[in-house]
Amino acid sequence: MTANASAAADDRGSRPKSRSIAYLTLQATREGQAAHAHVHEIVDGLRTLGWTVDLYEPSYASARLPGILGRLAEFRRVQRRLLARLDRYDAVYVRAHFFALTTSRAARRRGVPVVQECNGPYDDLFTAWPAARFARRLLTGWQREQYRDATAVVAVTPELAEWTAREGGRDKATVIPNGANTDLFRPGLEALPTLPADYVIFFGALATWQGIPTLLDATRDAAWPRDVPLVIAGDGALRSEVERAAADDPLVRYVGALSYEHAARAVANSIASLIVKDSPAHVRSGLSPLKLYESMAAGVPVVVSDLPGLADAVTACYCGTVVPAGDSSAVAQAVAALTADHEKARALGASGRSTAVAQHSWRARAEATADTLLAAIDRTALATPEVQARVRL
User: What is the pTM of this model?
Assistant: First the structure.
């Protein structure tokens, strides 16, 4: 147990409201990706609340992704650097990763509480990196052990909270969804000069489960308005397919990955934001996509699939249109309806904006994360014999 945690346990009624933590993410954070926004917004939010946060991540976050051996070497280097300083932290916050087992085990041995953050099931890795399937049993065992031994687990959806409880044989995780920077994503931002006057947008990872094929098919549907192009911003496995579509179809505009600031400007000036995920796996794990909250914060209506975490969120605040997952014709019809009815589109966007500000800001998510960390620190402190004896006295 750290010295700070022991002192904190002496007087729970007047415990300090902030501590010092190590934040470990072995997934390199690259601007324009959801992980970058999530990690840095939570880190910045905790620092604003008075926490001292040291971020540990691979050095190639802003460089070319190395091969598998290079990544494994970097995972080892990052964790060795953290573990050399482990005793100065009150807790370690880990963005769940199979190879973070080294840190999890070391922290447990040395009495430092660990909070694991779950953003998806195991299958997310094997979908993104099919070659890893040969080691599936080993890797899932490593992550299961981390969930089991964590002082606390944070999950971004209720479904993942229940899943981690089953996997780790533990209490249900705390649900802290994704959020939005409501100061950055807001209405009235200056338009990007490279974009057309009227358009709808998809921004994010170019992966099959994001509904990219459905979107490309929708632009070819007779219902899609011929004067409203689909702007696609992002990078990923389907980039080549998107580039080919953009070359062949004037209704598809591919602009590559955008910076955080430029993504906010692109979304704020769109007619609608399209979030039409269609992965069956996400029916079981639920959804909490950053792009949903960011689009709402930008004050534009959304078109979403009828999947958990999307349909219920949009229906609850009347901020968009729900369509059947994988139904390109329904997407085209929704885009046509929003394009034709500007008053309705504005009303949906305004409702989304007010809900995002009131309920889904990163500030609120950081406060919930801080509460979870403080509870984990107290739980670890009270678990030691010397503190338990003082409490009894």
Answer: 0.84
